[in-house]
């Protein structure tokens, strides 16, 4: 059993050590995790450039002051660029920190500019997007190392184009590598970037199945839809009522049974919250109450195009359904949530995942998929 993460106020691990040397890190994305990672990396002594597929919201490309509040208040200088060619350039490592529903399009755009020996870290990976990048790079004649994080190292909220609030630095984060033989160097790289606390996962499928975003976010969105649709303020953990928590627990049981069908062991959603936030409670509804009392938030989404729907349904729950069909495992609760989300949003979310077809999962076997992930 792993030791629960200590509260941020009790930790001494501050920003990651640069003992591994000064790295040149290109960050794809300018959302909350991208900005938070940029701050953390700059404080660790690394060089950072950021690029967004939506354009440079910070203004003209160049160096800008990036302000951080929350866990480690500070201001750092970060570089912003307009193009992927410049971002990939001579970067030692690329960090993909953006919603999974944009991964395929961005990965396709990255391929002409990546080079042999470069490392790409996908934070956090879902729907086996890292396998998509790795296999397509190989077809293009490029030898990449693609790392998958089972969850984000940091939790954060973007407050403006140049300001981010960092709430948590997770004390234990799983990471896998493609090819699997590169896992030791990937662990050393992640430690050099962010500090201690990384542990090896068997492969990218374990990283994907360890990600609990979909099973925790989707019920919150579906069962608070009227609040979201009307743009009403609501506190997520306060609205994770015992009934909603029960739905999440049922989805979690299906996720863990699915992992078992693939010979993979993953922790429970309660263990994830304990590692991430250092809670004392053990039942999910009690954990939600404790977090609401401690943090008073975070606020729930107030737009129906929230990533809790557009990302977590097709790239989370629909992906789990696809794995279940491959393993011959019925997943009634997962199927019900996808149906409910599709009905209320008026969108067939089973047709929204653009990774399933190119990964050819409908023709794959459990053994064959595990072999591709070695």
UniProtKB/TrEMBL annotation:
Enzyme class: oxidoreductase
Name of the molecule in the record: Opine dehydrogenase
Xref: Gene3D superfamilies: N-(1-d-carboxylethyl)-l-norvaline Dehydrogenase, domain 2, NAD(P)-binding Rossmann-like Domain
Keywords assigned by UniProt, alphabetized: Oxidoreductase
Limits of the Opine dehydrogenase domain: 202-343
UniProt cross-references to PANTHER family, sorted A to Z: BLR6086 PROTEIN (PTHR38015), OPINE DEHYDROGENASE DOMAIN-CONTAINING PROTEIN (PTHR38015:SF1)
InterPro entries recorded: 6-PGluconate_DH-like_C_sf, 6PGD_dom2, NAD(P)-bd_dom_sf, Opine/Lysopine_DH, Opine_DH
SUPFAM superfamilies to which the protein is assigned, alphabetical: 6-phosphogluconate dehydrogenase C-terminal domain-like, NAD(P)-binding Rossmann-fold domains
Organism of derivation: Variovorax soli
Domain of life (superkingdom): Bacteria
GO molecular function (one): opine dehydrogenase activity
The keyword Protein biosynthesis belongs to this UniProt entry's keyword annotation: no
E.C. designation(s): 1.5.1.28
